[in-house]
Amino acid sequence: MSALARPPAPRTFTPRHHAALALLGGLAVTVPACLWAISLAPAGATGLVAAVGGVAAALLSCAAAALAHQRAATGVLREQAGQAGQRIALLEREILRLAEETLPELGGQVREGVPTVDALAKVAQPSDELLQRLAKAAGHELDLLAREAAAARAAGASLEAEVVRLADEALPELVKRVQTGHQPVDAALQEVRQPVHGPLRGLLSETARQIGEGERKGTAAMRACAGAAARVQAQATSLLARLRELEERHGDQEDVFADLLDLDHRVSQLGRLADNIALLSGGRSGRRWTRPITMESVLRGAMGRIGAYRRVRLHSTSTVAVAGYAAEGVMHTLAELMDNAAAFSAHGTEVHVYVEEEDNGVVVTIEDSGLGMRSRERHRAAKLVSEPLDLRMLSGTRLGLAVVGRLVDKYGLMVSFRPSARGGTGVVVLIPRRLITQPRPDDAPPAAPATVPISAPAASVPVAGPPSAAPEDGTREALPKRRRGQTLAEATRDRPAQAAEPVRDGRDPAARLAAFRQAGGRGRTPDS
Question: From CA 480, how far away is CA 49, in angstroms rounded?
Fold first, then answer.
């Protein structure tokens, strides 16, 4: 046993020894006194004196022995109490050191991976055996807890890695396969890496089921939307055909003809909106062209599809043409970008369009004088035109840039945004060389759309000049005269562009005629 727990050594004289010595001493004193008293007593009283003396001697001796025993026992108890106090104080110090030094140091070494036996050998051990046992038991418990904590950390790390892998790899791949690849949910799940943990596998399966259900509903909604857009396109086609008949019939009546042109322009914009919805719903535009369209006609056709066409200024001397299969897509793209530039600039400002022929294609630059776009907004716009989106992916109600993104993806166009020298925003559109061709010799009147011939109003001025510029002499040219059966485009085809009527007011038929019909043409060619 330790020094703290070892009992005190046996004493040489115990309280009983002290009592015996006191008894003997008392007898040694009282017996002679008793004998002396007997010797002095009369002869008749000797027995009585002897009895009384013996009893008195015995009592005195016993009292002395009891007193000696009590004093000795009290001393022993005092000594034992002192030793117990010392042991208690020592034990308190040992417990305090165990709690504040030994156990924390032991726990730290166990957490660092040191075996319990080695950790116990390195720490200061208490002197008491019971405290040593307590330290060993605590070390083993700490080791067990450390092992359990390590296992829990490993399991948590594995689960976290599985969750990260599920969020960063499995779910995006699953969504891509179901939404983009149009794979069945079960087939997509088999090709996606499955999580190890059962609950995560269940989560992935349920997510796949929900994605598949959402995709089915979204596809059905897109088909319904595309069907509705197709019906609107058909109605626009019918309405435009009727408007053309009325324009032919009432071409000599200025007020009526001006109103018909205004309706024609509005229906053209309605057709563009229907085309937007159709394109974003997975459908196609309502127009198809059978032969190359000159760059000038493409630009003017794009102008004619926006409401603020009078603010657009063209600067182009290009003589190339866009391939017929891509002409509608290019025209629609430029119309959306022109409309966007006009919408985000003041009404009194102009939108300038420049055309340059480069080795890798034709570059069309559209510049406005608006407030411009911050870097974050340009980045968002560039993302919209670089990723083909549909109606399900749009976060707002504006469709223009999303439509541009669909057309860019379909025809391989390149669209970028930059600050404009005019203070607003510049949009650069690259039409790749493979879409560029030379116009046919018989393409004097540009080909009209084959299915939905929505007119393409544009300013009737030289491409390099402002569409609303007035003649230098300040005179106004009269409305062109047509023979019965002659189209309005034929009546104005041979008229010099410089003599076009300036924009005077909203009901000027000559101005509307010049703005709407020079580039649009009325001839129709069947779709080939």
Answer: 178
> Cα–Cα distance between 335 and 276 in angstroms, integer?
11
* Whole-number pLDDT of residue 9: 55
Backbone angles phi, psi at 123, to 5 degrees: -90, 160
pLDDT in tens, 354-402: 999 988 999 999 998 877 788 888 888 878 887 777 666 666 557 778 8
Q: What is the CATH number of the domain that holds 416?
A: 3.30.565.10
pTM for the model: 0.54
What b-and-e string marks burial along 333-351, b requiring 16 or more CB atoms within 10 Å of the CB?
A: bbbbbbbbbbeebeeebbb
Q: How far is CA 424 from CA 28, 163, 373, 466, 507, in A?
A: 134, 46, 7, 19, 31
Look up tokens 């603020």; give the residue.
Answer: 308
Q: Which residue has the tokens 């106004």?
A: 476
- What are the tokens at 34? 């008793």
* Domain-embedded: residue 190: no
Residues 6+ apart with CB under 8 A from 5: 128, 129, 130
Distance set, CA 110 to CA 107, 117, 149, 212 (Å): 5, 10, 12, 51
Of the candidates 234, 232, 223, 276, the one whose C-alpha atom is nearest the C-alpha of residue 451 is 234
**Confidence bin at 314 (pLDDT 50/70/90):** very high
Q: Which residues pair with 322 in a beta bridge?
A: 293, 436
Domain range holding 36?
A: 15-134
Task: Choose among 463, 467, 474, 471: nearest CA to 516.
Answer: 467
Q: Would you say residue 397 lies in a domain?
A: yes
Rounded Cα–Cα distance for residues 328 and 428 (Å): 18
For residue 52, what pLDDT is reported?
80
What's the gap between Cα 489 and its chain centre? 54
pLDDT reported for residue 493: 36
User: Residue 476: which pLDDT band, with cuts at 50, 70 and 90?
Assistant: very low
Q: How many domains does the chain have?
A: 2
Order of strands across the sheet with 293-294? 293-294, 321-322, 436-437
Residue 216 lies in a domain: no
CA distance 241 to 235: 10
Of 103, 119, 134, the domain-final residue: 134
Strands 312-315 and 425-432, by their bridges, are unpaired
**Bridge partners, residue 354, by sequence:** 315, 365
> To the nearest whole number, what is the mean pLDDT of the chain?
74
Sign (positive or negative) of CA dihedral 201, 205, 210, 215:
positive
Decide if 398 is inside a domain: yes
Q: How many residues does the chain have?
A: 528
Q: Where are the beta strands (DSSP E) in 308-424?
A: 312-315, 321-322, 351-358, 361-367, 414-419
User: Considering 111, 134, 157, which residue would you say is the last residue of a domain?
Assistant: 134
